[in-house]
Design brief:
Blueprint lengths: L2 E4 L9 H16 L7 E6 L9 H14 L5 E4 L4 H13 L3 E4 L3 H13 L15 H9 L5 E4 L7 E5 L3 E5 L8 E3 L8 H10 L4 E5 L3 H16 L14 E5 L2 E3 L6 H5 L2 H6 L4 H10 L12 H7 L10 E3 L1 H12 L4 H4 L9 H7 L9 H9 L9 H13 L6 H13 L3 H13 L7 H8 L1 H12 L1
Helix pairs in contact: 6-7, 10-12, 16-17, 16-20
The protein binds glutamic acid.
Glutamic acid binds next to loops.
Length: 456
């Protein structure tokens, strides 16, 4: 069974880039494999107690609910610290973690020197070379160590990435990552690997900014297995499948600040439907066409990692708005009923829907039915025409057709001269919903009253 996870850190609101990652993990799970639907987990990465906030956890849940990306389970890293401790101890006993004592300034200086010499800024493992006596001396000075994971330089790293194809890393080209701070708190790397094992995550799908983390984590998975931390049953495969998607950029091709703050609240305020966000993000950056598909099952069915490109995916607001308009035109009455103006029924929704770019605009259009409408100026001739119209009006199955057919015969008017004064008299506007659908909503008495009023 496929298990995916979306693992946001609750240090801010979800932005369009995170939303896309969540969506793709949800789709991967919903598509499932071998006739079986998968699981989509929400994992709150809240080991950073200082920056994590409960209000963001709530907001993440609310945003996923608004998008309709309901997780099948939720986990929190802050509730799992004992697990990380156990993994840490297992790795430590196996000689795969070591204490380091450099200050941030010392490390920074080392990097500057390396860069100055044209060398890559890789940690030099000075702490690994310390003798017991040297370590004891540091601790006697009161310096608490932070902890690094020791990469195995003899074990080349390779994986078959679901988006990027074969990926290879030489471990000696990577720094041994710091996994734990001097105050005992955890950095991202180890808890994430422990959780992916423990929660049976089969597919890790995330942004390409995590590619080098994956290289490290692949060795971590193997080390946890060797150190006996991983139960044999979950070690059928030494690590999950990995796929890294290209990042999302603004239309101008750069990572924009604006995208970093664009999220569900902004979408909602602009009248963007979750279905539109989903239709766009599902396929943006893939070789499949972005289309206003409101049917999630269809999007899930066509979801295919092998169609994901390696070039940055370009997010364009205008495209989102186009998709949204097309989606709004497909929405069923039941889907929007609780957001429609009082009294607007299914027939009203159907009449007005084609004119909308957002559902919220329904209120303005509904005013054409309930009134009051704006009054228009008419020529003498048109006023006579409207008087004739009021007298001609009959009420049957299709009053608009009956009225215009009769008026055409009586007056010889056609085209714009026939229709526009009627539309203006009945709605106060030059354009708008189909009059044939509108008239039954306005009703016979009100229709006649508006024609008479306009006729003066
Ligand atoms: N909390 C990490 C992040 O938001 C999760 C990365 C991952 O998916 O492993 O970047």
């Amino acid at each position: 069974m496929i298990t995916t996870r979306f693992a946001p850190s609750p240090t801010g609101r979800l932005h369009v880039g995170n939303i896309r990652t969540a969506l793709h993990n949800w789709m991967l799970a919903r598509k499932g494999g071998a006739g079986e639907k998968g699981r989509f987990l929400l994992r709150i990465d809240d080991t950073d107690a200082e920056r994590s906030r409960e209000e963001y956890v709530d907001a993440i849940r609310a945003d996923l609910a608004w998008l309709g990306l309901e997780p099948d389970g939720e986990e929190r890293q802050s509730a799992r610290l004992a697990k990380y401790e156990a993994a840490f101890e297992a790795l430590r006993a196996a000689g795969r973690v070591y204490p380091a004592y450099e200050t941030a300034q010392e490390l920074d200086l080392k990097r500057k020197i390396q860069l100055g010499r044209g060398l890559p800024p890789i940690y030099d493992r000075a702490a690994l070379a310390l003798s017991d006596a040297e370590r004891a001396a540091k601790e006697a000075e009161g310096i608490a160590p932070h902890w690094r994971f020791r990469l195995d330089h003899d074990e080349p790293i390779a994986w078959d990435d679901g988006v990027r194809g074969t990926q290879k890393f030489a471990p000696a080209q990577l720094s041994d990552p710091v996994i734990r701070r001097a105050d005992g708190s955890w950095l991202y790397m180890l808890p994430s690997a422990v959780d992916d094992i423990d929660m049976g995550v089969t597919h890790v799908l995330r942004g390409e900014d995590h590619v080098s983390n994956t290289a490290v984590q692949i060795q971590m998975f193997a080390a946890l297995y060797v150190a006996g931390f991983v139960a044999a049953k979950s070690a059928a495969k030494s690590h999950p499948d990995f796929a890294h998607e290209a990042l999302l950029v603004g239309r101008e091709g750069k990572l924009s600040k604006r995208l970093g703050s664009l999220g569900c609240d902004a979408f909602r305020e602009r009248g963007i439907e979750p279905e539109a966000v989903i239709a766009l993000l599902a396929r943006l950056g893939t070789s499949q066409p972005v289309e206003p598909i409101a049917d999630r099952a269809a999007l899930i069915e066509s979801f295919d990692l092998s169609t994901f490109g390696r070039a940055p995916a370009k997010f364009d607001d205008a495209e989102l708005e186009r998709i949204n308009t097309a989606i709004v035109h497909q929405l069923d009455f039941a889907h929007v009923a609780d957001r429609l103006p009082e009294g607007m029924d299914e027939a009203g929704w159907r009449a007005i829907r084609p004119n909308l770019t957002t559902v919220a605009e329904a209120g303005e259009w509904w005013r054409l039915v309930t009134g009051p409408i704006d009054s228009c100026e008419f020529s003498e001739e048109d006023r006579a025409y409207l008087t004739e119209a009021a007298a001609t009006l009959t009420w049957g199955d299709d009053p608009w057709r009956a009225l215009t057919t009769a008026l055409k015969d009586k007056t010889g008017r056609k085209g714009k001269a026939l229709f526009l004064p009627l539309r203006q008299a009945l709605t106060g506007m030059d354009h708008g919903p189909d009059m044939a659908e509108l008239l039954p909503l306005i009703g016979e008495d009100e229709t006649r009253a508006r024609l008479r009023h306009a006729a003066g």
